[in-house]
Every structure is written in C-alpha cells, then in structure tokens.
Amino acid sequence: MPFPDIILIRHGQTEFNREGRIQGHGNSVLTELGQAQAAAYGRLLAERFAPLTPFALYRSPAGRCEQTTALACAAAGLDPRAFTIDERLKEKGYGRWEGMTRPEIATAGDEADLGAMDADPWGHRPPGGGETLTEVMERAHGWLLSLVPAQPVIVVCHGGTGRTLIRRYLGLDAQETMDISMRQDVVFHLSARGLDVIETGADMSQLNFS
Q: Which domains are delineated in the chain?
C-alpha cells in the first residue's frame, strides 16, 4: 500500500534528554535548546514546504510533543489546535525504568536486563509493564495505514516511534533502522524517493545551555 509524503519531526530536547533519563510514556519539558530546535522546525516548514494548507497534521499526546508543536506552529504560521492527537504515536513504554538513567537502572539491579535490551532492541520488554519496540512499530504501522495516500502529512512524535515509522515506510531491516540517528536538529522527509534528512540550519551558538 502506498503511503503519503510524511514530514516527521522528533520533539525538541527535553530536560530528561539532557540528563540521560528515559522518558517513555512519562514527560519532561523542553530545554532552552529544545525550544530553539522546535522554532527551527517551524521556520524550515514555512521555508521549504509552503504552502502548508494541504498537509494533514498529527502529533503524539505527550506534553513534550505538544510544546514542540506549539513553538513550531508559531514559527510556521500554523494553528496547533489543527493537529490531531493520536495515541498510536506515543513513545515506547519503559515500565519502571521511566525517569531513570542507565546507571540508576543498573544500581537498582536491572543491569542484566539493560544488556538484554541492547542485544535485542526490537524484542526486549522493559520490566514493570514496558513495551517491545516491535509492539510500538505495530501500533505506529496502524497509524500509517490510516493515512490518505494522496494527502501529505506533518507528524510530531518521538525518537523510538519515529524510528519504527521509518522502518515500516521504507521496509528496512532491524539493523538498518537502528543505524538511523534520530536527531533533534533535523526533519525527516519520507517519500517515494526514500528518506531525506534535512538540516534545520538553526544557529545555536548564541544560546546558553549550561
């Protein structure tokens, strides 16, 4: 089944991202850098993909995606209320690991489980009610299949979920997908041509991120 062109945006950097904490279904606010990244997304959309009126608009329900969407919309001239919130775009659930760093997880006695996740990122289920990445891919694929092929899409979601969307869209294997860097200073353009990774060109040099 053909998919529409998709502009895929990962939320901007959050406090948890900066601290190396797992977010999953939890949330953390954008840092100053993350806010700048979100505004840069909007400027790129307006400059590169105008007019934006034909696009269907979607986002994850997570607060960090809501914040990213609002800032991007302010820069692009879009209405954030026009975005459809879809639960299938949520990040992978990490169970009891959410809010923790890898050293904290290891100290809590789950070091072997961390190793198991690294060895099998698609099949491993974090303890305490987590999801496998394959399960995330299947719900994200359901969202893909619900799209109208002729209508281009802008979607704001997450690194893990976005990775699974790219895999399903392009038919990549597991390792090819894991090799993609889900950066927060680019947008990912999926189309019949494949994957284009577009730099936002944001000038971060004058900001203080300490």
A: 6-199 (3.40.50.1240)
